[in-house]
């Protein structure tokens, strides 16, 4: 049994007083009482009423405490809140359970589908998800493939129409999950293919087919192209050969080369004689045809497919709701949409004066700007490594790192290989320098610095052409005033917009 975890998106204390002067005095006192007493009451109620190892979600709970004696403010708030909140929360949980039972839906499945949809479209997780778990998406795909393969397949077929959504899933998932997803897509279509075709096995090992392609980059192209083709519910007229002709055309599109160039490049990894190539690949080489990928979900040639490097913007596609509705499921936007992004590394902003030197030392800079997109992505991932020490940072952990590095929020993240030993050593040197630059920290260790300041909850939002970061305070934050640098505003030459910090 896992320890209970409660995530609250927003808490509002609304108090009516007689005059403005009393309101100002009360505001400060309410903040103290909330932090020292009320949060514990809320947490205790959630723990007592929540079912262990089960996801329960409640959109809104309102509690009216009635008249409060200002002379006994703290006592009255605590004494009244506990029973009234317990009663109101229990009622809302019963209502949600009854609705779920009537619809015959599994709330865990619905939540996981919403998580996949949110990550694929934006690179972020819903506000209620645990972003500290770097393999959360793999775990989610595994659960859905086991318990809700049909709704997941419908969702993937809708998501792959949205620019880089499918590529984002591919880059973040391990091969084991992608093989299972490919098998589920093929099983739900008319394609006559085994769940692990030899053609795909061979292509995943053939990164030398495209000049300059990294193994990770070519892997993403192959998986994205293969999964897009598997999303077609109708089988090509020429069967397996047609499937791989279409898949190779999509892989070429992902890689930014022509189909002819890709086929020619396959000679190096697969051998000089196409007749010896695995499965249908040789037949495609001998008769490539006129493969021009259309919008996935249509036959090739029926429309123009956007390259995956484009990122979808705007309102959520109705295809997502339609996909879920087709499986008698509905994704509730009340739990997925947010006007701010919750982060667990808000304290990363403390390091802003040292970032430029770090990027220079790592060879990512050219005249205070990143050398290329690859360097930019590397920098964003290394910022997360500074906070946690993770060697393979997850994209959904990077909203603040994107702001501090100047990467667009919707750009599909491509970190490349895990953090190298040289990069890790340079990050340790930078953290050591940051601690030494604040004498108030004394001999604090890097682990202590991360736990005390860098790993901190916060909320990131846009406001008037700038970013706003609100950081959750802790008792030892009093030492921040003794740091020899400020944090109210952060703007570096490589950042797209300034960052305002409320700490």
| Number of alpha- plus pi-helical segments | 20
Q: What radius of gyration results from the CA coordinates?
A: 26 Å
Give the tally of structural domains: 3
Beta-strand residue percentage: under 5%
Q: SSE order in H/E notation?
A: HHHHHHHHHHHHHHHEHEEHHHHEEEE
- The order of strands across the largest sheet is 1-4-5-7-6
Q: How many β-strand runs? A: 7
The end-to-end distance, rounded to whole angstroms, is 35 Å
General description of the model:
Residues 302-313 have a biased composition (Basic and acidic residues). It holds the Pfam family CIS_TMP. The chain has 503 residues and is mainly alpha-helical. It folds into three domains: 20-103, no CATH class; 107-325, no CATH class; 341-502, no CATH class. It has helices spanning 20-49, 73-103, 107-122, 136-147, 149-159, 165-172, 175-187, 198-204, 215-230, 239-255, 259-265, 267-270, 281-286, 318-325, 333-336, 355-361, 373-388, 399-405, 421-436, 446-454, and strands at residues 341-343, 365-366, 369-370, 458-463, 466-471, 489-490, 499-502. Strand 2 (365-366) and strand 3 (369-370) form a beta hairpin.
């Amino acid at each position: 049994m896992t320890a209970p975890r409660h995530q609250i998106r927003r808490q509002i204390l609304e108090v009516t007083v007689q005059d403005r002067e009393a309101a100002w005095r009360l505001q400060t006192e309410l903040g103290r009482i909330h932090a020292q007493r009320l949060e514990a009451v809320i947490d205790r109620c959630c723990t007592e009423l929540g079912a262990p190892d089960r996801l329960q979600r409640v959109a809104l709970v309102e509690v009216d405490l009635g008249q409060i004696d200002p002379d006994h403010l703290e006592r009255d708030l605590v004494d009244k809140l506990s029973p009234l909140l317990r009663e109101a929360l229990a009622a809302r949980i019963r209502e949600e359970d009854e609705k779920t039972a009537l619809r015959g839906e599994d709330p865990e499945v619905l939540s996981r589908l919403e998580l996949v949809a949110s990550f694929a479209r934006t690179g972020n997780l819903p506000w209620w998800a645990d972003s500290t778990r770097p393999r959360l998406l793999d775990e989610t795909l595994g659960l859905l493939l086991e318990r809700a393969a049909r709704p997941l397949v419908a969702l993937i077929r809708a998501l792959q129409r949205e620019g880089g959504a499918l590529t984002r899933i591919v880059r973040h998932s391990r091969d084991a999950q992608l093989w299972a997803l490919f098998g589920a897509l093929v099983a739900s279509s008319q394609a006559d293919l085994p769940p692990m075709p030899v053609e795909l096995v061979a292509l995943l090992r053939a990164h030398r087919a495209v000049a300059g392609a990294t193994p990770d980059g070519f892997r993403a192209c192959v998986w994205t192209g293969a999964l897009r083709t598997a999303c077609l519910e109708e089988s090509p007229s020429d069967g397996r050969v047609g499937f791989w002709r279409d898949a190779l055309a999509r892989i070429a599109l992902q890689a930014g080369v022509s189909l002819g160039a890709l086929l020619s490049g396959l000679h190096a990894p697969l051998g000089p004689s196409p007749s010896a190539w695995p499965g249908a690949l040789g037949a495609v080489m001998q008769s490539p045809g006129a493969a021009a990928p259309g919008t996935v979900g249509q036959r090739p040639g029926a429309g123009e497919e956007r390259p995956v490097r484009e990122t979808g913007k705007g309102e959520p596609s109705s295809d997502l709701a339609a996909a879920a509705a087709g499986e008698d499921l509905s994704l509730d936007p009340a739990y997925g949409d947010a006007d701010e992004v919750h982060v667990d590394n808000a304290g990363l902003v403390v390091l802003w004066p040292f970032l430029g030197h770090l990027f220079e030392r790592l060879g990512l800079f050219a005249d205070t700007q990143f050398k290329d997109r690859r360097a930019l992505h590397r920098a964003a991932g290394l910022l997360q490594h500074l906070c946690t020490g993770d060697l393979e940072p997850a994209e959904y952990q990077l909203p603040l790192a994107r702001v501090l590095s100047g990467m667009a929020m919707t750009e599909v993240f491509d970190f490349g290989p895990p953090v190298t030993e040289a990069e890790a050593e340079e990050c340790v040197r930078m953290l050591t320098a940051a601690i030494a630059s604040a004498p108030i920290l004394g001999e604090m260790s890097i682990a202590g610095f991360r736990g005390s300041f860098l790993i901190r909850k916060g909320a990131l939002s846009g406001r008037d052409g700038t970013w706003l970061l609100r950081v959750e305070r802790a008792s030892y934050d009093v030492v921040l005033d003794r740091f020899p640098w400020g944090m109210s505003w952060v703007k570096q030459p490589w950042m797209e917009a300034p960052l305002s910090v409320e700490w």
